[in-house]
Automatic annotation (TrEMBL):
InterPro entries: AraC_lig. It comes from the Bacteria. The keyword DNA-binding applies. Keywords: DNA-binding. Residues 52-207 form the AraC-type transcription regulator ligand-binding domain. It comes from Massilia solisilvae. This is Cupin domain-containing protein. The lineage of its organism: Bacteria, Pseudomonadati, Pseudomonadota, Betaproteobacteria, Burkholderiales.
Length: 240
């Protein structure tokens, strides 16, 4: 059968299934300062280890409050709204589908709250005032992301990373899969969970390279020779 220009071609049924038409997506090109091959090499050799992963539920009048841990941690807000408090930082408003990476030795507090805190800059929200917040559901984990000579990707991170995603990005599904695997304790469950968490880190890296400021602030550990940041610094030195 020959199709003329403008003709509508019916879908072809293969083994009882109708193939879906791929939807084209707008692909953002890599920034000019990024050495993609070097970044791919570093990420491919990165060893992600999941130490702990659990689902956390924060109800009205309660908070998720952690002392500074020796290793990085992540917290993904599946549903809910609140405020993030860390030492020496202004409170940050957090909504659903937000990923938070907390650096080592950084006290962390997430507490439910309205759109604006009653006292900006206050370390805590009052538990006595009238509240309208609902329950927050979170996926929280402790992990390592090692590359090179046992260097953690987030060792040099000084303040938490806060990045807003959407359900279409699939992070919630990936984290839920990792949690399900760890609970199942099947063969290679740890391997699959670690691989899935690595995909979450890659999603964060992709977001971060869109801004040179975000990249250098979030991934200062990638300042080894040949890394994207080292290339940026080299280019800056050559322009002086």
């Amino acid at each position: 059968m020959h199709a003329n220009e403008g003709d509508t071609i019916p879908p072809v049924a293969l083994c009882g299934f109708t193939p879906r038409v791929a939807i084209s997506q707008v692909v953002t090109p890599a920034p000019s300062w990024l050495v993609v091959a070097d970044l791919d090499r570093l990420v491919s050799t990165m060893d992600v280890q999941v130490i702990a992963l659990s689902e956390c539920v924060v109800g009205p009048g309660f908070a998720l409050d952690l002392d500074g841990l020796d290793t990085p941690s992540f917290h993904y807000i599946r549903q809910g709204h609140g405020w993030l408090y860390t030492s020496n930082e202004q409170p940050a408003e957090i909504g659903s589908q937000t990923l938070i990476i907390v650096p080592p030795h950084c006290p962390f507090r997430f507490e439910l709250g309205p759109a604006r805190p009653s006292a900006p800059g206050s370390a805590k929200l009052s538990r006595d005032r009238d509240r309208t917040e609902t329950t927050a559901f979170m996926l929280c984990g402790i992990f390592r992301s090692l590359y090179g000579n046992s260097t953690d990707l987030f060792d040099t991170l000084r303040v938490p990373i806060v990045e807003q995603f959407s359900k279409d990005d699939g992070l919630e599904l990936k984290l839920q899969l990792a949690l399900t695997e760890l609970i199942s304790r099947q063969v290679c469950a740890d391997v699959l969970a670690s691989t899935t968490i690595k995909q979450v880190i890659v999603a964060l890296i992709r977001r971060s390279v869109l801004s040179l400021q975000d990249w250098t602030r979030r991934f200062a550990a990638l300042s080894v020779a040949g890394s994207p940041r080292a290339q940026v610094n080299s280019e800056k030195d050559n322009t002086k």
